Amino acid sequence: MKNRLRHNFLPLLLVSTLFFYSCTSETKLALDITMREAEKRLEKGDITFILEAEPEKMQEIANIHPSAPFYAGLLMKAEEAAPKARTINLFTAALFSPSTRVQEAASYELLAFMRDDPGLAAGVLEAAGNREPGADPSTLKAAALYFTGDPIGARNAASGGQPWDRAFYLLSTLTLGGDVSQELFQFLLDGTVADVHTWTYREASKWKGAAVIFNETERWSIEGHFETARRAYGDALRTFRKVIAQNHTLFFKNPALIADLGRCFQYAGAGAEGVKLFNDWDNTMREWVRTKKEWEETAHARYNLLFFAGRMERQASRWSEAADYFTRSLVFAPDAEQEDACIWYILDAARKQSPEKAISLLHIYASQWNDASYFSDILGELCQSVAATHSWTKLLEIFSCIRSVNGTQYADGATIAQYAYIIGRIISEGYMPAAKAATYTGLDGSASSFFRLAYEERTASFYYRTLSASRLGQHVFTEQPEKLMAAEKKKKTRKKDEAGQAGHLDFLLGFFKYGAARYAFPYIQQSEQALTIDESRILAQALAGDGQYYESIRLTGLYMRTEDYSLTLSDMLLYYPRPFCAIIEKYARQANISEAALFGLIHTESAFRASVVSSAGAEGLAQIMDFTGVEMAERIRREGGPDYLKSGLNLKDPEVNVHIGSYYLARLIERTDTVLLALLGYNGGPNRVRRLRTAEPLLPDDLFLETISITETREYGKRVAAAAAAYGYVYYNMKMEDVSADILKKRRL
To answer: What is the CA angle 46-52-56, rounded to 5?
Structure first.
């Protein structure tokens, strides 16, 4: 009875929404189409039947599902010729969805329309007010009241929690004559600059004029903050210099402005000026602490001053001075993340001076850092530095520092495995006696003990795990993929979600159910930190099913790197998908190269995005540069193949791109000793790699790879080899370790 009474107060729009529960699939809608047919069309992203309907009939879409109008609204919004009224009515209908996530998303869409056309606010407010008690998001109500000229109502409606809520609360208070200039100033400087900040500043200026609300230096500070966010560093620096000239203490009270100013000095080429100024300011603040004991009030500001002074010195390659500033800033670091940032820069500056200096500091800082994975890249660079000079003892010293004898591990498992494999190889090649390795590491010193450590590290790259397995005569996976998949299917992978999580996931899956899959990924990104592994997996499968392989790979890789993750074959299939299979297999066979290797290359190069263009101009699946494409296309034509140049070379065509990429890789393999060297040449240029190899003729290819100073090329070789091993195992009935061994196998004896 209670529910019936409540529904009596709802408008016809909600009644039609609830009618969904009594409709059959053959019910004829007012759109002159059955509900079943409407649902089928919407699932395909076909909204022609909506475009042909009258605007007031948009609520009929709720008969498909109460949340369907939101997704239909996104599709309608993308249609340039679509009448705005239909789109607005769809988002308004979505306000009656039982999903709070749908309500929230629809509210922000309507908010955008109201900002452009405040005259729409009255209709939105009426619809929002007719919903069930407690169902209307405060942001939408506050916005609608504000735009209809009811600042008191808007201020009362705004909860103040979310940025837009806060904006309407402050603007309403300002309209009513309240003095919130300082609160508004802090709001505009708070966090990353977003649309809410720039719009609020314009709106506040429109009501009273910026000169009335803020003094001159405050206005310049806000504008400089916005210019920095747009990366207009030169403009921002000119703006900030005016603040410095009139009231530099404004920076002391707002550490975010110091960070902005530091970036401007750094990227506008005024580092020397910035270092001097920041050092002077820090001395001033240090004096404050000495005389007034204002430690907490100055700590964050001093951190930013010293940290960005260090970055400016680093940009000028003044490594010792940079390290000094980062060391001083560490004392004031506001959180664990900033502590790690300081330590990273300290170690990086030391490494640039000498590996010995960096290693000495590792003994100090390895036990102090918070997130071990944060330092994997610098430990990788340090590994390259010592490998390039064959300083194998230093490699042992680093390893013993990041993995102490008593078992305490100060590096992530992947880095430990990398060092362990390399040490195993230098022992097996006779570059270091086993007894010396045992003295440093506490292991028995045999090569196999290090290989086993790398092999058993489940978080290690497939590159190091498979190579270690090959050395040990072991297998990364002992079961065939079919058996693993059968075992996984017996397990229940989706746990019962909490109520909020279920609505959260259902909202994201709605994009795929109602034809709006192409708009899903930004919403997934907003939520990815809150998703469970099972939820992320479901969404990654949905993305892959829609052909969004890059997005699926990215999401899968994100949850595969979490601490409590255990590898499954299902995730390997998601992370290593096989789109364009017929084309890739065809040209791999034609070029006489491994299908697994070609898939690994394309996975690494483009993640199967056929139309992607890199910053360097490489195009398509296999990322072909235009001059390489033209040369290879001409060779293919001369050898009796298709003439891709006849009508203009189209490297975004998957078949053209894969044919040229596989042909080019095959030529590189013919000109080198191993597939690995060919892959390195594919990325770094064959001539450059040849020069590097000539300068290092004695090391085996896998150890030579570790000496390459070009980080992108060095890591590229490992990534392609790891991906190839995965593809070989999952799809081609090959042992992963055999694939990796084949990539290193000599072609010419």
So the answer is: 110
Q: Where are the alpha helices (DSSP H) in 130-253?
A: 138-147, 151-157, 163-175, 181-189, 195-208, 210-213, 216-229, 233-247, 249-253
| CA 283 – CA 277 distance, rounded (Å) | 10
If we measure between CA atoms, which residue out of 599, 611, 661 comes closest to residue 633? 661
Q: Per residue in 598-637, is it b (16+ CB within 10 Å) or e — as a string? A: bbbbbbbbbbbbbebeeeeebbbbbbbbeebbbebbeebe
Check: CB of residue 15 under 8 Å from CB of residue 60: no
Listed in sequence order, the residues at least 6 apart from 353 whose beta carbon sits closer than 8 Å to its beta carbon are: 319, 320
Q: Would you state the structure tokens that stand for residue 309, as one six-digit string?
A: 């002074």
Note whether 162 and 104 are within 8 A (CB).
Answer: no
Query: CA–CA distance from 229 to each of 162, 235, 362 (Å)?
Result: 20, 11, 35
> What are the boundaries of each domain within the chain?
2-136, 492-575
Residue-level pLDDT at 683? 96
92 Cβ neighbours under 8 A, 6+ residues apart: 13, 58, 106, 110, 123, 124, 127
722-725's contacts with Cβ under 8 Å and 24+ in sequence apart are 722/461, 722/462, 722/463, 722/466, 722/600, 723/462, 723/576, 723/599, 723/600, 723/601, 723/603, 723/604, 724/594, 724/596, 724/597, 724/599, 724/600, 724/601, 725/462, 725/463, 725/466, 725/476, 725/596, 725/600
CA trace torsion 241, 243, 248, 252 (10° rounding): -100
What is the amino acid identity at position 229? Answer: A
Nearest-angstrom CA–CA distance, 323 and 345: 7
Instruction: Specify whether the CB–CB gap between 64 and 71 falls below 8 A.
Output: no
* Tokens, residue 527: 């939520």
pTM of the model: 0.89
Residue 95 contacts residue 136 (beta carbons within 8 Å):
yes
**Closest by CA position to 520, among listed 493, 541, 495:** 541
In sign, the C-alpha dihedral spanning 196, 197, 199, 205 is positive
Q: How far is CA 476 from CA 35, 112, 262, 452, 488, in A?
A: 51, 52, 48, 11, 18
The CATH number of the domain covering residues in 492-575: 1.25.40
Considering Cα of 620, then 622, then 623, then 628, what sign does the dihedral take? negative
Of 156, 159, 58, 152, the closest CA to residue 104 belongs to 159
Tokens of 157: 């409606």
Give the bridge partners for 619, in sequence order: 613, 624
Phi, psi values for residue 409, rounded to 5°? -115, 120
The three-state secondary structure class of 604 is: helix
* 4 half-sphere exposure, CB direction, 13 A CA radius: 1
Q: Look at residue 406 in the predicted model and tell me its pLDDT.
A: 62
Specify the 3-state DSSP secondary structure of 283.
helix
CA atoms within 13 A on the CB side of 132: 17
> Cα-atom radius of gyration of the chain, to the nearest Å?
31
Residue 535 and residue 495: Cα distance in Å, rounded?
9
Q: Are the beta carbons of 261 and 251 closer than 8 angstroms?
A: yes
729-738 in b/e form (b: 16+ CB < 10 A) is bbbeebbbbb
Q: Which residues contact 286 (CB under 8 A, 6 or more apart)?
A: 302
| Pairwise CA distance, residues 712 & 594, whole Å | 23
- Cα angle 601, 602, 604; round to 5: 65
Neighbours of 331 (CB within 10 A): 12
Could you tell me which residues are beta bridge partners of residue 624?
619
Q: What is the pLDDT of residue 29?
A: 52
pLDDT at 194: 93
Q: How far apart are CA 662 and CA 665, in angstroms?
A: 5
Which residues of the chain are modeled with pLDDT < 50?
Answer: 1-25, 28, 132-136, 492-501, 749
pLDDT value of position 137: 63
